[in-house]
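Final report, results section. Input specification for complex C-07:
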Amino acid sequence: MLTSTRIDPVPGGAGGRHDANGHDAKTSHSGATPLGANSSGANTGAQERRAGFGLDLLNLWVANIQTGFGPFIAVYLTSRGWTQTAIGLTLSLGTLTAMASQLPAGALVDAIRSKGRVAALSIAAFALSALLFAVYPVPLSVYSAEILHGFSSCTLGPAIAALSLAIAGHAGLGRRLGRNARFASIGNGIGAALMGAAGYYISERSVFFLTAALTLPAIFALRRLGHVELPVRAQKDLKLKHKLREIGQILADRRLLIFAGCAALFTLSDAAVLPIVGGALTKRAGAEASLLIAACIVLPQIVVAAVSPWMGSLAETHGRRIVLALGFATLPVRALLFAVVTDPTLVVAVQILNGVASAAFLIMVPLVTADIAGRSGHFNLALGFVGFTIGIGGMSSTTLAGWVADHHGEAATFVFLAAVGLVATLLVWFALPETNPRIAEHNTVHERKKRARPKE
Amino acid sequence: MKAGRSARLLAAVAVLLGAAGALADPLPEGTAAPSAPDAQTAPDKAQPPPVTEQQDVPPVAPKEGPTQPEAEKPATDASAAPKADEAPKDEAPKNVEPVAPTEAFGVLGKKVYGPDGKDILGSIIDILVDDQGHPRAAIVDFGGFLGVGSRKIAVDWQLMKFHPGDSAVPIVLDLDRKQIQAAPEYKDPTRPAEVVEPDLVGVSATPPVAGVVVTPSPSADTTAPPEPPLAVPPAAPSPAAPSSVAPSSAAPRGDVAAPAPPPDAAPQPNADKHAN
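Structure output:
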């Protein structure tokens, strides 16, 4: 609480300086002053545990909040008598905002030193947009709420990743992200249960009041973290031109490009599956269809909560590629199973595979990005870039899957999505280099040794 | 302190935006009307009003009150004296006819109940009308969880029963779950909608000739599902489905001549419900 207010006064004149001079002065400052000491000093014993616990809770509550904004918005607006056209416009507005904000939001999070403050403001923006939805659902406020939510979700994700990196350090990041995923999925599960119950028993509108109320515990969880700052490699060159070149270098990193491509294909293969499965369940199953769909959403969350810490450790000990391959390989299997399986119980069971995939994906996106851009000062920008490609994958997934479903039927759609998943898996396995710095180094040493003595 | 500050900021912006929204009220389409009164009263939902900016809303709301069906209960023709604050609208033009919510009501987004009056089947999200402006079919969205996995189907307008005065069960769809599940999905407004027809479904075997009330409004009150008059057994839904479906563009039915039965059908169940 005190620590966070200290940020402005402590740099003293610098606070005013980077208002005037923009980014250049700011970066020089973070490189020159021992601000890193602030966070490295925090990395001791009880305080670290306290911060870790705060992160756990933060992930839980934030995931909880996010549940209400999603496909449910269409249900809510329908209940308010909105036309399908207006609802479609609203949802596209949200998607487009989120897509357009990824890179700028990443750059913004990079530029703001206190990631905690970014997270707090983003959560506050969530609360505001939930209230706008709930209190005054007319087009002006709904569109504002969608834009607000679209942008702030692009700042919140990277901010939490940056907080995790700062608190856990690069060496502990895999395990940290594993815990993040565990608590986020618990939050998702709780959120789905709470919001589903509120929507069913009270009213559609109450879901958004509940969402707004749940931002409060998220803010309190954030306060436990104290002041956290991402230590950045000292930067000697401060000119904008050089910064741009640096950004260009990171975004052109071959590993980042391949990984972004894999991530886009992952979402392309994944995003359309659940809506199709849900629609099929609604068609096939009776009154219990809604419960089955709820199970299809909650079961993977339970799996994520169970396996993600283990996956985080696995990424540290055995490398990122093995975890990625494991998660990605479930994509084609799941899609093919859905093409064959029709029994509702089995359909829900197949969703276990979705849990494995989600866990790997949730952990690996920030982890691999941190491997590549962690200390460059452009971590969040790189994360925004990956988020952008993920968004493209998600958007094209529903469009393409819808097209295939219309022309060739449901089974063909699943085969198509399985094929995309297979390509993504092959890309991970054959094209993506290991990014775990320790293992990557070990590999090169090993290879050099092998080359030194070819055969005995 | 961080939290305190952001909370204050949040409150300030919320109030600002609420005010901005209030100013902008008259301009957007019909949506403003249904939303505003609800924001003020939040009637049957047992919704606690936890938020301060709700106080921003009421001043705007009462203007367009009576579009909302729920609040009105009187059995009599409520059109004569609905509300005193109608005044500003009434005084200027003479060609205005007050239509009470017990007489006609907005149905977009309203829940659709099954024949037993308990089961919520889905909600009306759109209405298909012909070149006379007569409703041909309702698009009903049903199923799903938090918006995931819902399906849209088109059902013939004759299958919908409207009870404008009844706040508990205002809209009934004479189809059971099996029939709804068997119905083909309504996807694209540019393509022929496959509308579930009443006679083939077997619910109301009587072809709707003139503005005759379609039979089953009593059967809607009985708990028995409307299976008996059925010629085609719904036990085999998938083969039955295609036969019960007519692409609306390909079927210019003669019986469309029966114009707008719902208003005729409405008063009776309406009166029934009020007796309760």
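Chain A has two domains: 23-238, 253-433. Chain A has a mean pLDDT of 83. This concludes the modelling results for the funded period.
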